[in-house]
Write a structure and sequence with these properties.
Blueprint: H1 2-6, H2 12-15, H3 21-36, H4 42-45, H5 52-70, H6 78-83, H7 92-96, H8 98-129, H9 131-144, H10 162-174, E1 181-184, E2 192-195, E3 198-201, E4 206-209, H11 210-214, H12 217-220
Antiparallel strand pairs: 1-4, 2-3
Helix pairs in contact: 3-5, 5-8, 8-10
Length: 223
């Protein structure tokens, strides 16, 4: 994810995790997820010193962002699209809202890195635990990419691998990599809404937890 978002600049496999990025990221995600359920307390929380894990992660993101900005847009990664428009001019929104650029750096680190690793791990686990699935996957991939051909040379072909994409989707259903859920609240001025026989007053957020919903037989049962 460091390559995709920042054009490199992390190199954890080569240099190790001297800045304790993984530890800080995991702790910060716990903090953010917990406070997402009690947003009214954030005003008080913002008056207190930030927990070290969250502060360290913010410092790490800011440092990587400044290094990436200094590198310009010669590297075509996510930040190349955020820093400049299609004509090569500085993106006007982020020029006027630099704090949002830092927030996006934080988002890419936390939402992109650990989730990708967790999803890939779950994919390998489920595929190898089901030999018929693994064999069919191998046959489909081998047919599209004969021995010796590199998948990375033409990623567009991956869209046509229907079974591979189906297994990826099923992996994400069984083992969603994102904690928390889908927050929703009644629209302003509605007074409230009734959901499943329960009244939810305006200004109240309700959540649907990923794992519970995606393993519910009412929605994903055998047809």
């Amino acid at each position: 994810m460091g390559d995709m978002a920042f054009g490199g600049l992390t190199e954890l496999q080569r240099d190790g995790d001297a800045e304790r990025l993984l530890e800080n990221m995991h702790m910060a995600v716990h903090i953010v997820t917990a406070f997402a359920h009690v947003p009214w307390i954030l005003n008080l929380f913002n008056l207190l010193p930030s927990p070290s894990s969250l502060a360290n992660l913010m410092t790490f993101a800011r440092k990587r962002l400044e290094e990436r900005k200094a590198a310009g847009t010669r590297v075509k990664d996510v930040f190349a699209a955020l820093l400049e428009d299609d004509a090569g001019n500085p993106a006007p929104y982020y020029k006027d809202h630099p704090a949002d650029l830092h927030a996006d750096a934080m988002l890419l680190i936390t939402a992109g890195a650990d989730t990708t690793a967790a999803s890939f791990t779950s994919f390998v686990f489920y595929a190898t635990q089901n030999p018929p699935v693994f064999q069919r996957l191998q046959a489909e991939v081998d047919a599209e990419f004969p021995s010796g051909s590199a998948i990375g040379q033409d990623l567009s072909k991956l869209h046509s691998l229907r079974y591979l994409n189906a297994v990826i989707d099923e992996t994400l259903r069984l083992a969603p990599p994102v904690s928390g859920g889908f927050p929703r609240e009644p629209p302003p001025g509605s007074v409230g809404v009734t959901v499943a026989g329960r009244f939810v007053p305006e200004g109240t957020a309700i959540w649907t937890q990923h794992l519970s919903m995606q393993r519910d037989a009412r929605y994903f049962g055998v047809l």
